[in-house]
Amino acid sequence: MHDRARTANLLGATALAVADLALAGAARTAGVSVSGASALVVLFWSPAVGVTELGRRVGLTQSAAARMVDSLEAAGLVTRRPGAGRAVTVEPTPAGRRLARDLLAARDAPLTGLLDALDDEEHETLAALLAKLLARAYGEVGDAELLCRLCDRGTCTDNAVCPVGQAERDQRG
Fold first, then answer.
1. Which of 24, 45, 15, 40 is nearest to 157 (CA)?
2. Contact 29, 103 (CB under 8 A)
3. At a CB cut-off of 8 Å and minimum separation 6, what does 41 contact?
4. Residue 49 Rama label (left phi>0; alpha psi -120 to 50; beta)
5. Can you give the pTM of this predicted structure?
6. In this predicted structure, what is the pLDDT of residue 98?
7. Which residues have a Cβ under 8 Å from the Cβ of 38 and sit 6 or more positions away?
8. Which of 52, 57, 81, 165 minimizes the number of CB atoms within 10 Å of its CB?
9. Which 8-state DSSP code applies to residue 116?
10. Which of 148, 129, 60, 50 is nearest to 91 (CA)?
11. How many Å apart are CA 39 and CA 93, to the nearest integer?
12. CB of 89 within 8 A of CB of 103?
């Protein structure tokens, strides 16, 4: 009989360790907050997003998102552009795009290092299990953009289907 409480505890400890490793490298590389780093990655994949939408995608209120964008703009990483009516979009500058690529690489390095502990079969098994857990996480979170805010979307969808995107499509019917 499997001890589900122990498995849940192991998952929680692993999730925190992985998050700490991934976010520490990314934040160090960026020299910005974790939400700022997330925003740069979001803008890398969706280069013209409104402040409110950007905040939603990184888990911030509109006012906190506006302050974050102010900080990123002061650092020369994003710029605001007038949109339709009173709307304003946020776009990464060339420096912001370069930093987003660096962030993704910094996030990937410690994660790839952890995966070196697995053989090929274990790697495939883990990938399938993670896809299943991410689909379930989408059911709990209900927001693919928020869930994948620091995701390397190109890597995720190269010769595969994103499990979060598929869960979103499945839920919409």
1. 45
2. yes
3. 100, 103, 104, 149, 150, 151
4. beta
5. 0.79
6. 94
7. 57, 58, 59, 149, 150
8. 81
9. T
10. 50
11. 13
12. no
Kindly list the structural domains of the chain, giving each domain's residue range(s) and its CATH number in brackets, ordered by start.
22-117 (1.10.10.10), 119-173 (no CATH)
DSSP 18: H
**67: pLDDT confidence band, cut at 50, 70 and 90?**
very high
Tokens found for residue 79: 């710029």
Q: Which of 55, 58, 92, 60 is nearest to 75 (CA)?
A: 92
Distance set, CA 38 to CA 93, 114, 149 (Å):
15, 22, 6
Of 73-77, 84-88, 122-126, 161-165, give the lowest mean pLDDT range.
84-88
Q: Quick check: 23 and 34 in contact, CB under 8 A?
A: yes
Going by pLDDT thresholds of 50, 70 and 90, the confidence category of residue 1 is low
Of 94, 112, 88, the residue nearest 80 (C-alpha): 88
